[in-house]
Specification:
Order of helices and strands: HEHHEEHEEEHHEEEH
CATH topology of the largest domain: Beta-Lactamase
Largest sheet: 6 strands, antiparallel
Number of strands: 9
CATH class of the largest domain: Alpha Beta
Strand order of the largest sheet: 6-5-4-9-8-7
Structural class: alpha+beta
Number of domains: 2
Distance between the termini: 49 Å
Helix content: 40-55%
CATH architecture of the largest domain: 2-Layer Sandwich
């Protein structure tokens, strides 16, 4: 990348952060300035900004600086997502082989589900999403499978004030959606019956972390013509079993 696109003050602030991260001990302001070669006033302003956002910790008693918890939490988040993808890949492929239908892995980001993994059907007519693609939580089995296991008073933070129809079958009533989430929790899986995409049925089940919290979900996406009502229970059981296997590998203990 050309240097023309680098914002120099941001680069210098990151240099300060990297210096603190690589140090084996906390550093004073003069020590940091000596290591990065930036004037004291400038470094002080960078440090105060980084402290305000939790990336740097200031020990007032010693007047020294070190890495903040925000760095650790970001690292944990990245590790968790990477670990999730690694663990889920084989289980998703086994589920795909069982039905030769597309299997998706998704996590929540704000009010949307983000597709971070996929095992795609080999059939000519198949359902597929795009890696990195996003859909509303309320219209997808992935999203509903996750938030159904959250406390009811938290649901609203994952839902828009108004539910916009994606298809003619999309649930657009908050009351009806709440009823669906309660049913999803009871039976252990979510069913998107053509609500996010026409002529598609998706069955989603939650993935739990070591503390029993829903952190992701997998779904099997099938053209409606290949998933009649008589097959839903059987397919749902396999999706749930796969999600549980992944959860157990992540440390979940029933």
């Amino acid at each position: 990348m050309s240097d023309d696109y680098i914002v120099k003050p941001v680069a210098k602030a990151l240099l300060v952060l990297i210096t603190l991260g690589e140090s084996e001990r906390e550093l004073s302001l003069p020590e940091i300035c000596g290591l990065v070669g930036i004037p004291k006033t400038t470094v002080y302003r960078y440090l105060q900004t980084l402290v305000a956002y939790g990336f740097v910790r200031h020990d007032h008693s010693l007047d020294k600086y070190g890495p903040g918890l925000r760095i650790w939490s970001l690292g944990q988040s990245i590790w968790s997502r990477t670990r999730l993808q690694e663990v889920a890949t084989e289980a998703m492929e086994q589920l795909r082989l069982k039905f030769d239908e597309t299997v998706n892995l998704g996590v929540i980001d704000g009010k949307e589900i983000v597709y971070i993994g996929m095992a795609e059907s080999r059939r000519a007519l198949r359902m597929h999403a795009r890696l990195g693609g996003r859909d509303p939580i309320y219209s997808t089995s992935l999203g509903r499978a996750i938030i159904a296991l959250m406390p009811e008073d938290e649901w609203s933070q994952y839902l828009p004030a108004r539910l916009t129809p994606r298809t003619s079958k999309t649930i657009v009533s908050i009351a009806a959606l709440r009823s669906d989430l309660a049913e999803t929790e009871r039976r252990g899986y979510a069913l998107d019956d053509g609500e996010n995409e026409e002529n598609a049925r998706c069955i989603g089940a939650p993935i739990l972390d070591g503390g029993g919290r829903p952190i992701a979900a997998i779904s099997l996406s099938v053209p409606t013509s290949r998933l009649g009502d008589d097959r839903i229970d059987h397919v749902a059981a396999e999706v749930r079993n796969t999600a549980m296997r992944i959860s157990l590998l992540l440390g979940y203990q029933p």
